[in-house]
Design brief:
TIM Barrel; 2 domains; 11 strands; three-stranded antiparallel β-sheet; 13 helices; alpha/beta; globular; single chain; about 40% helix
Length: about 350
């Protein structure tokens, strides 16, 4: 049977996490050219924006790459909750010499309802499409599979892994609680068993028939080797690539990653409305009571971050990072992939 890596045409068991807003076409192409699977997240843009990103990647590489989609349930607006949240944030805006927005909106459209994005993907046919926050409708899955696209899906527990397998997903990304960025939970209000990467990887490897990719806290070749020994076919790394030259991370994000904040990552929903692991900053210090639904809350979070940056304050950024953040190593993406490959060889 042809392995997943052979189907992808990659030579290294390394997947660069999509990281919407931080990964770039240049990063994805560099990783793919170096033998891994590069990725871009298009959940924070529309079909037109996704088309531009795909076109740029293809100008830079002829290798396989991954396009990541958000599959969250569309937000249910609640004007009272949203206004109360803006009033909660008002003192923070005022300290920065700014005023909060008058209202909030659902700034990202879920792939669940985005037919324009589906049409784009069927026209462009990237080698890989990955899914975060759940499973889209059956007709979208079927259309992508019929187009020959390999599908990956994030799971944070065995039940989500079984759902991915039942939906026809080709491989599951086992996202441990250590991982930076948004938890891929299908239901952000459900109880989170907070399974670590290695426990979750083993549970999925033992109980699923599809390949498993380990994700969360993996920063070097030794971590990749450990994941492979647990039965994963590859490891997905995100935080490891944030400090790369091709990353879209701003100066404040990079400085925070290189500071003591890297030793104190925290899970918070105050930034976006969904649980996500972030470097310790002013947002993670806030209480999480009364946060609007995702991604409506993110509208407020982005406004506050913009006001902060204008005032020279970066502490309200979405500085996503996993628990392995102190192991970050700034360098170009291709050099990092080569280093990871060498470390994996030595650890093998």
């Amino acid at each position: 049977m042809t392995s997943l890596l052979e189907r992808l045409g990659v030579t290294l068991p390394i997947v660069q996490a999509p990281m919407a807003g931080t990964s770039t076409p240049a990063m994805a192409a560099a990783v793919s050219n170096a033998g891994g699977l590069g990725s871009v997240g298009v959940g924070a843009t529309n079909a037109e924006g996704a088309a531009a990103m795909i076109a740029e990647i293809r100008q830079r590489t002829n290798r396989a790459f991954n396009v990541n989609l958000f599959c969250h349930a569309p937000a249910v607006a609640n004007h009272g909750v949203e206004q109360a949240w803006l009033e909660r944030l008002r003192p923070e805006f005022e300290k920065l010499g700014a005023a909060p927005p008058v209202g909030l909106s659902e700034i990202y459209q879920s792939f669940v309802t985005d037919d324009d994005m589906l049409r784009l993907l069927l026209a462009e046919r990237p080698k890989v499409v990955s899914l975060h926050f759940g499973v889209p409708p059956e007709d979208k899955i079927r259309a992508l599979r019929d187009a020959g696209i390999i599908l990956l899906g994030t799971a944070t527990n065995p039940a989500e892994g079984r759902a991915m397998q039942a939906a026809g997903i080709d491989a599951v990304v086992a996202q441990g609680y250590e991982a930076g960025g948004h938890r891929g939970m299908f239901d952000p209000d459900a109880e989170d068993s907070r399974l670590g990467t290695f426990a979750l990887t083993r549970l999925l490897v033992k109980n699923l028939k599809i390949p498993v990719i380990a994700a969360g806290g993996i920063m070097d070749g030794a971590g990749i080797a450990a994941a492979l020994k647990l039965g994963a076919v590859a490891a997905q790394l995100g935080t490891a690539f944030v400090a790369c030259a091709e990353s879209a991370a701003d100066a404040g994000y990079r400085a925070a990653l290189a500071s003591d904040a890297a030793n104190h990552t925290m899970m918070t929903k105050a930034i976006s409305g969904r649980p996500a692991r972030c470097l310790a900053n002013r947002f993670t210090a806030m209480d999480q009571v009364g946060v609007p639904a995702y991604p409506i809350a993110y509208d407020a979070g982005k406004s506050l971050h913009a006001a902060g940056k204008a005032a020279g304050e970066f502490g309200f950024g979405a500085q996503w990072a996993g628990q392995g953040a102190p192991l970050s190593r700034p360098m170009p993406a291709a050099e990092l992939v080569a280093l990871l490959a060498e470390e994996l060889r030595r650890a093998g």
